[in-house]
Amino acid sequence: MRSAGRRRTAALLLVPLVTALALLVPSFDADGPDARTMGPALSSDAAFTHPGVLVDRDQLDALREHVTAGRQPWLKAYLAMRDSVYGSYRYRAEPHETVVCPAGDLRGRGCAEERADALAAYTQALLFTVTGERRHAEKARQIMDAWSATLRRHTGEKAALQAGWTGSVWARAAEIVRHTPGAGWPAARVRGFEDMLRTVHLPQVTSSDPDFTGTWDLVATDAVISVAVFLEDRRAFDHALERFRERVPAYFYLEEDGPVPLTVPGSGVDGPQRMASYWFGQTTYRDGVSQETCRSFRHVGASLAATAHIAETAWHQGVDLYGGSEDRLAAALALHARHELGERAPEWLCGGRVERNLGPHLEVALHHLEERRGRPVPAAHELAARARPAGTDDLFTAWETLTHAGAPAG
Predict the structure, then answer these.
(1) Tens digit of pLDDT for each residue in 285-322?
(2) Is this entry keyworded Ligase (predicted)?
């Protein structure tokens, strides 16, 4: 399989001028070694790169090299992953035919089990990458095969969010196992897993609502692009690109947007009162503020992670989504990391009271900004360094110090 680190799109897509202007993405030198498609879709003659969901072959090779050489922080990150509940050889899947996820914090039925099992499959896939031990691949396959043979539907008010959290992680695990020599996943079982993602997860996460909170929509879009790559589904892939380009500018504010935030096309958020309510009481808009800053930093962290996951997966497929979003990501990382580190919130920001808990969500965005672009984000860098190795949020983010800290630029 071709690595995203070696694969490059030969030239920019030719797109109509109106479409190009709407993309909010700076142009690249098409003759340069890092030229990527900037149009609204994947080129019709471009092959999907595998593995290419969040991580590519160069990144997987690099993390294995770091760990086997005993380098930090990768060795510490690997040991934390290996010794987690998800890394156990004795891990047992608990598949459900119907996963019921109600609103709020109610437990539901099968929700926590599916999330845990997806993370376990991904963990075992990464362990197989590092160690080459076949039993890790077998464990990942056992978990995925158990769910694909059982799961038929997600229901409840949070069904789409559940499908988003798990769809992205299932696809990450499946990409690695399917496209790593020696994993031994039979073709018939692969097709069964494809069917599960196509018929159970994808319908939930492709139905969009412009008035969703940003976290919900970005998590769903992360799942769409991840599943699309695994299935080689161009229509779903292009759908994810479009949703990203609509949602991200409406979620992370920059002063260049004007006196009030942008909105997703078709949104019912209009007028100052509805805008303030949608932004959880925030009425002063400055660089880096997000739609959910005054809800909780935990939601902002998840949105930063999902945004970076989507852009990173697109990057591995030769499409640059980062370009039009780097200023927003950098501003949001800088603002929230400063306050996460203890800086007092000013009165204009959430009335001077913020709920801190960004979580293990910074590594992918930092990797792109600092290591690809050479763009320092000091507060976020300090916060990530203090928290390393980043573990898992038990939802859809896992082991990103291992996979992305110091990863090849690609």
Answers:
(1) 999 999 999 999 999 999 999 999 999 999 999 999 99
(2) no
Range of the domain at 376: 1-53+235-410
Residue 49 in any domain: the answer is yes
The CA distance from 299 to 308, in Å, is 14
Residue listed under structure tokens 């709020």: 104
Residues in Cβ contact with 245 at an 8 Å cutoff, skipping those fewer than 6 apart: 22, 23, 24, 40, 321, 324
Q: How many CB atoms lie within 10 A of CB 270?
A: 11
Give dist(CA 385, CA 75) in Å, integer: 15
Which two structure tokens, joined as six digits, stand for 110? 């099968």
HSE-up (13 A, CA, CB side) for residue 111: 22
Q: Identity (one letter) of the amino acid at 332?
A: A
> Which residue blocks in 232-370 are alpha helix, DSSP H?
234-251, 272-278, 297-316, 326-340, 363-366
| Residue 248 structure tokens | 């991200």
Residue 182 three-state SS = coil
Residue 337 structure tokens: 């990391």
Beta bridge partners of 392: 398
* Predicted TM-score (pTM) above 0.85: yes
Higher per-residue pLDDT: 255 or 10: 255
User: Is residue 205 one of the residues assigned to a domain?
Assistant: no
Tell which residue, 305, 329, 325, 367, has the closest CA to residue 165: 305
